[in-house]
Each structure stands twice: as structure tokens, then as C-alpha cells.
Amino acid sequence: MSTQDLRVTKTKESLRAALMELLTEKPLEKVAVTELCQRAGITRRTFYLHYESVAKLLEAIIEELLLQLEASLRKTSQQRQHAQATHLQPQMISLFHHVAAHRQMYRYIFSASSQFSIYKRFYERIKTIVRQSLTDMEIKQEVREFYASYNANAVLGLIMEWSEQEFQQTATTMASVLVEMMELENEEE
Known about the structure:
Arc Repressor Mutant, subunit A
């Protein structure tokens, strides 16, 4: 990695950290570029080289988070297929490790000051992944979308509750909770 690339990476990391700090103090609409730059230790000019607004910075952070979330969900699916497991095992679930690593951002996503559209984007991405995983399951066509929606909201609900509880449980504990809930759901059938 060149020195220039390293500087860009560090600048973006500083901006992201500064924005997350500011979002714990005030809503996005109240975060000024000048204030953000002071907190990140960069100039306004440098900020505008990378982003056109604070909202665009948040958008970039969310998109990166969505890609990482998607990768963690796909990893879980691949591990399950590789193990040829009929039931999901807690150690196969990497979703909660991803959330734990980015807990500050998830705290914001599920806070009252966040926009519903952010939640909706996470919901849609998870729903798409769930829908893709249904290809080998025998679920009636007219029920598939409801099933995908139900599961996407269940995953987000677990993350939201974990956030509400200040991420007191470990990622491994949360994976076990998810498996236990899935087993309860299967028992009812």
C-alpha cells in the first residue's frame, strides 16, 4: 500500500470515527462539516476531496457496513453448506461478530435519532439474502416473501434488542440465542 493510500485510509477512518462520536451527541442534520473536520483533525478541503456532505459520508459508512453484513451472512450459509449441517450451529454464525465489531454504528442505526430509511436498507439487504437461501427449501411461492420478511425482521429484532441491552452478551451468546429461537420455531411446526 502506498503512502498516499495509507493517508486516504487514515483520513476516512478519522472521519468515520468522528462522525460516530458526533452522532452520539446530536442528530445527523445538526452535524456541521467544520465541527466534523475539527473532531477528525483534518481540513474542510480534505473532507470535500472525499465526500460532498456529511450525509454522503454516512451513506458511505452504511454501504460499507451493509457489504460486511452481507459477507457475514453469506459466510454463515457457506459454513452450513460445507458442514452439510441440517441445523445451524452457533459457531457457524458470524453475523453477531460483525455486529459486535461495529456496535457503535449499530447503536446509531437503532437509536431514535436514526432515520427509518437506514433500518429499511438493512431489512431489504437481509431479506434478499434470506430469499436467495430459499431456493432449495420447499416453501409455497405465495408464502416466500412473507417468510423472507419475517426472517429479516427477526434478525434485525435480535440485533436491536442486543443494542438496547448495550451489547452485554457476547457474539457467541447471541449466536446461541438465535439457534435456540430457530429450534423453538421448528418445534412448533
